Amino acid sequence: MSLLKVLKEPFHYKKIDWRNYRSTSVKSDNKPVHPHAARAGKAQKARDWKEATRRILAYLGRRKPVLAFVMVLVVASSLLTLVGPFLIGYSIDNYLLTMQFDGLGSVLLLLLASYIALSLATFFQNFIMVRVAQATVFEIRSDLFSQIQRLPIGFFDKRQHGDIMSRVTNDIENISATLNSSIVQILSSLVTFVGILAVMLYLSPVLTGITMLVIPLMFYGLRWITRRTQVFFKEQQRTLGRLNGYSEETIAGQQMVKTFSREEPVIEGFNERNEALREAGFWAQTYSGFIPKVMNVLNNLSFAVIAFVGGVFAINQTAGITVGMIVIFVEYSRQFTRPLNDLANQFNTLLSALAGAERVFDIMDEHPEEDGVNALPVKSLEGHVAFKRVGFSYGETPTLQNVSFEAKPGETVAFVGPTGAGKTTIINLLTGFYPLNSGVIEVDGYDITILKKEELRQQLGVVLQDSFLFQGTIMENIRYGRLNATNDEVIEAAKLANAHGFISYLPKGYKTSLTQDGGGISQGQKQLISIARAILADPAILILDEATSSIDTVTEMKIQEALKRLMAGRTSFVIAHRLNTIEAADKIIVLQEGTITEKGSHEELMNERGFYYELQTSKNMDTIL
């Protein structure tokens, strides 16, 4: 393979299917985990640095030809490092001490050529390795982000978002730093170690034995410090993730922090986590900082012993040792211990990278959300939904018990009940976010567990109470409902949602850029954009979490009008926050403590004079308790 071909080789992105890569797996009962419960069982993860290293090498192994060329350059540069000291010692013994300078010029030219060749080999090996490292890190980051997109909602319930972000950014950046520099240095040092050992044994077994005396001390010192430092580096990455998670949470909730004047407690909470990170980082860096110092002391000790013993031998002309040979051994002894020195100098980066790699592979080993075997495609739905004896729990306490109801195509079903009764849980189960403990949910007669989740959700339109908008233009946010929609279709959806009016008055209209979560527009306007997005998606089944309780009357009327257009001809499920908004529903389901206590139309439930009747006739009739 030519050098030009190596440098131009495209570093194409190839995904690793870690589900097939794992050697073992842990059985799971597929029960969902409550947000505050312990983590669910998952497949084998990287539990130590050996496993993390093996998996990083699996990524590097995709570019074996390029890495082979790098190895050739590493061997060449390592061998060239042997030439300089040897030629210098040779010149001392054969030219300087004898005062015979014939041929010295040729030796010096050869020495210069070796240094130039060494510089070129070092440059190209570093240049190519950086490309390999960046391409590898690109793939790890892409695989991690892709895995995050495949994980079930339950995973995000029990993880801080900032901690996940820390793994995508900080932990992978640590891997990048190691691959960029440490790998080549360690490989080069190991090759140099073997080459120097062979040459030293050839020149003088006696001086070689003296040089080897410091190796056990170096090995023992490195092992002693490693056992302690590795723990602190893992703790450092863990506390960094906690700090990032806390920072992300408090920054996102600044409005709430300021509303309740919680600035000081938030600062105290940050300082506590920052102090934990400082403490872990201090001990990690302190212990790892011992290594270069210890290595330098042992290196200097080795130099002194070689110089003293070699000098005595040279003066007494013992064992064939000369002044030039002492110079060679002093230089070689420095290079001989360089593998351990390089490992010491790269120790902080190496351990931090391996700790980060374990955290990255920990997420990669989470069970992704998968379709069942031979899952059926979902092209179109009529919207016939049936819950049959459904049971579900986040933890030990049941959330839903023996829930059964039916929604025929085009019907509107509303859920009412106290907070915690299970209204939102029913919606989460219909979308397939969590697996059932018992019972069956059917759509058009098919158990949703045998349907392809992605295609099922494409038939569902969701308008939540807290509408989420992405950073980007209004046009892009509405088009999120159907990415291949034309501009005219987006505008038509906005008109049906009563959003076209306020959008047109904005300085840039549909090209107006929104900050994260729709900053810059009102809550009601965000809701209208969300409705336009749902209209554009044209779903068969609608899920509506009303968001009109904190909106002015005029905006509420616009939203209600838009919702009526959206619900026309579609099966709709409404979580009611105001009772007067659901009186026209075809079926109203009353939930209490996870069970259905009443079911029927508004008139039927009022005639029963049960819990629903009490809600309607209470002083707070517009609010669900």
Automatic annotation (TrEMBL):
InterPro entries according to UniProt: AAA+_ATPase, ABC1_TM_dom, ABC1_TM_sf, ABC_transporter-like_ATP-bd, ABC_transporter-like_CS, P-loop_NTPase, Type_1_exporter
Comp. bias regions, Basic residues: 33-44
Annotated Pfam families: ABC_membrane (PF00664), ABC_tran (PF00005)
CDD domains: ABC_6TM_Tm288_like, ABCC_Glucan_exporter_like
Gene3D superfamilies attached to this UniProt entry: ABC transporter type 1, transmembrane domain, P-loop containing nucleotide triphosphate hydrolases
Lineage top rank: taxon: Bacteria
Compartments where found: Cell membrane
Membrane topology term: Multi-pass membrane protein
Region (Disordered): 25-44
Domain spans labelled ABC transmembrane type-1: 68-352
Keyword Transferase: no
Bilayer-crossing regions: 66-92, 104-124, 183-203, 209-226, 303-330
Cited PROSITE patterns: ABC_TM1F, ABC_TRANSPORTER_1, ABC_TRANSPORTER_2
Limits of the ABC transporter domain: 385-618
Molecular-function annotations in GO: ATP binding
PANTHER family hit by this protein: ATP-BINDING CASSETTE SUB-FAMILY B MEMBER 10, MITOCHONDRIAL (PTHR43394:SF1), ATP-DEPENDENT PERMEASE MDL1, MITOCHONDRIAL (PTHR43394)
Protein name: ATP-binding cassette subfamily B protein
Taxonomic lineage of the native organism: Bacteria, Bacillati, Bacillota, Bacilli, Bacillales
